[in-house]
Write a structure and sequence with these properties.
The structure is a homodimer of 138-residue chains. Chain A is α+β, with helices and mostly antiparallel strands. Chain A is 35% helix and 28% strand. Chains A and B meet through strand 4, strand 5 and helix 5 of A and strand 4, strand 5 and helix 5 of B. Strand 5 of chain A pairs antiparallel with strand 5 of chain B. The first copy, chain A, binds a DNA duplex (30 and 30 nucleotides) through helix 4.
DNA sequence: GTACGTTTGCAACGTTGTTGCATTTGAAAT
DNA sequence: ATTTCAAATGCAACAACGTTGCAAACGTAC
């Protein structure tokens, strides 16, 4: 699937900013922050445009946002083919990367009487396999 | 347990700001934001002092921080007597309140090979029982 | 190519959180 | 009670993130 097709499928205008963001996020191994995405883009876009593009793409469910604690915001592709609808996120506190754990099923938590839920965010913090192996070398 | 005792137990100085924050958070039914805590305090403290107090109290594990998506930060008492170590949080998207779900056990998620974890944050978004009942009246 | 609505860039602004430094305060020793 | 000193506070300045209004530029359909 190409970025242009995705935009067309969602019936939103094909602009270079949106197209670029999708391409970067699509090829990324990890979720990327605003700045990480900007660095990988050829075009130079205003921060406002960036935020508005993220917002649009999120509303169309083309990408999704992951927030770690505070102030660390990452974006990943929201593809129901590769990602399950409800998946957990893994945050490596050593290399600061975020990954979608597609093979981890989020349990349905039992809520108090009368409570209803429509979304469960799970963020697991730890050390990823890359950082673990780096330790051995040091 | 009184706020002063808690401070003494953790061997940090008893200041009116810290004491006030603990008292407010201790008696609150929900987790409270910075502004909500300030409103309930008699003294008027500088924002810097506030942030530094939160930081200290968090480091001492007297309170803990819950972040929703972005920009919505709430604090709750970190009491191992009333709260389990790892508990889920419930965020009502209607009244914007956050509650610690002490009776909800967080499952141990199975991670990919080589990954290790030390913390799992679970945030369940939905409608709380109060807002559900309000709906019926409308 | 024209026309229209959407998107962009810019400027300004608001909120959140941090840092450095001088002043004040808490608590322990005298 | 007074002295003492590290710790906490208040203030000013700053940085990062995100939003809003508006004029200019752009995408798309005719």
């Amino acid at each position: 699937m190409k970025a242009v097709e995705i935009l067309n499928n969602h019936k939103i205008k094909r602009t270079s900013c949106r197209e670029g963001i999708i391409e970067v996020v699509m090829t990324a191994k990890h979720a990327l922050s605003e700045n990480e995405i900007r660095e990988r883009l050829s075009g130079n876009y205003d921060r406002t445009t960036f935020y508005r593009s993220f917002k649009t793409l999120e509303e169309c469910k083309i990408i999704h946002k992951i927030v770690i604690d505070n102030q660390l915001v990452k974006y990943a592709l929201d593809n129901t083919v590769t990602h399950k609808n409800e998946h957990a996120h893994f945050f490596c506190t050593k290399c600061n990367t975020v990954q979608c754990l597609d093979n981890v099923t989020v349990q349905k938590y039992k809520l108090p009487d009368g409570y209803s839920d429509f979304e469960t965010d799970v963020l697991i913090k730890g050390i990823c396999v890359n950082c673990k192996n780096q330790n051995k070398i040091d």
